[in-house]
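Note to self: the last two entries modelled the partners one at a time, which told us nothing about the interface. This time every component goes in together.
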Amino acid sequence: MEEVEQISVFSENKPGKLKRVTEILKEKGINIRAITIASSNSYGIIKILVNNPLKAYQALKEKGLSVALIPVLAVEIEDKPGGLSKIAEVLKEHNINVEDAYGFVIQSHNKAVFIMKVEDIKKTRLILEGENIFLLTRRDLYEI
Amino acid sequence: MNQNSNIEFISRESLEKLQLSRLKETLRRVYSFSPFYKNLFKKEGLTPSKIKSLKDLPLIPFTTRKDLRENFPYGLLSIPLNDVVRLHTSTGTTGKPKAVFFSRNDINSSAELIARSMKMTGAEKGDVFQNMMGYGLFTGGLISHYGAERLGLLVIPAGAGNTERQIELMFDFKTTVVHITPSYALYLADVMEEKGFNPKKDFNLRILYLGAEPYSEKTREKIERIFTVDAYNSYGLSEMNGPGVAFECKYKEGMHLWEDNFIMEIVDPSTGEPLKEGEEGELVLTSINKEAMPIIRYRTGDLTYIYPEKCNCSRVHRRISRIKGRADDMLIIRGVNVFPSEVERILMDLPEVGRNYQIVLDRKKDLDKMKVRVEIKRDFFDGSLDHLKKVEIKIKAKLKDELMVTPEIELLEPSSLPRTTGKAKRIIDKREI
Ligand SMILES: [Zn+2]
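The predicted structure of the combined assembly is written out below.
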């Protein structure tokens, strides 16, 4: 199964970087599913989910940006109170350390997607699936 | 052994004898011809005949950059103007440049020092020398060119800049030897990689001469690794007729300063008092083999020390250490002395750090702020903010430990700082005095 991949772009916190990134992607006909920014005081990372991660990665790299392609887990949760707590419990139970996480909502489906970066992605997948937690595939993400 | 290489291995005694006779001749000429020196000697109640041994040299006052500027253009000229065949100017930062004149013999003797230096590092007939020093008013380009031709190398007068053409020339003509500034060498490697070349394997380079700006031992190692070459440090200045004043031999431990052409002293930069071998201070040079414009006891502004021990190569000419910085480059940050070259040494030691950096100084509420902007290495970025933060903390701690000043660190993308083809602009001082 193909893992969902996130695009991470190094960004100096100066205006224009985000615009530049989205423009490059637009030019290549790549659709952005979600975008979030994590930042420290003078620099940050733009995290993007797109419908074609590899193409996005290559396009950004070609333009000289510092970019990384990172496999992540995309968990579908119901967009209602408590949706996340079950996942949190399972992760805690199995001692899985989440290095990075963020969520976004799919308006049309009334569903929320929770993106996680963990150390051992395969092991975590097996554990979550064992607990009947639904993980999105690349295709699922494209077709949102 | 021919006569030219002989001079490198004569006894200390013979060398000093030669120095004294050349010094005396030089003093006679400047005294009788240069209005500046005539005046200077008169003010001190001196005549050339009072200088009887090398020990008497400190009786003569220093010549400073200010003297050169104030007596611009002909004040230090020591031969008739119609015997001058060349004018160079030195890259001045402010005000009038310094004019330097050459007689035909001066061109030859300066070229000879370059030929001697290149030969010392193993360059020979059959080598292809691509000279990336700026041609024109700067002495670095033309004098290196003449020296290399004198040694019989095939010279490509590429000059500075136009990086893509440089790479093309290096590739097409299998360049083996390059004279280059360290910052440009790093930039060149960057562009090679961007163009899909492997700097280690796709070229025939074997010797690099680095000079014209201060840099650290770490930078040399980095450059040697990137290109798999031997990189030799060199030292020169226009006021002393160009790039061949001191060069490293194959042992790469300090630069042999050609004492048959120059008398060197090391002095305390603030008091001008002489310092001993091994003590760090400002280099003072007297040119003793120049006709058109010899300079006596010139305050170079460059900080170095003389190696007290003899080099393994057994050359008689003593060695100076790599230039730590210019006496007037030293930054004073909250009362602490900081040399940009120290910052560079520390940064280049960190594997996550790329090839370019910049120091920005500012003053907020009467407090000096030092910000170091660092490009991270291209293959280091893995998309993790955590890793970036760790690198930031590591750089900060390293600099703080060694400099006693806590800088602010700004991480930058590779190749995001303004690139340079000549001397790098590493320091931006926004503090108002
Ligand atoms: Zn030696």
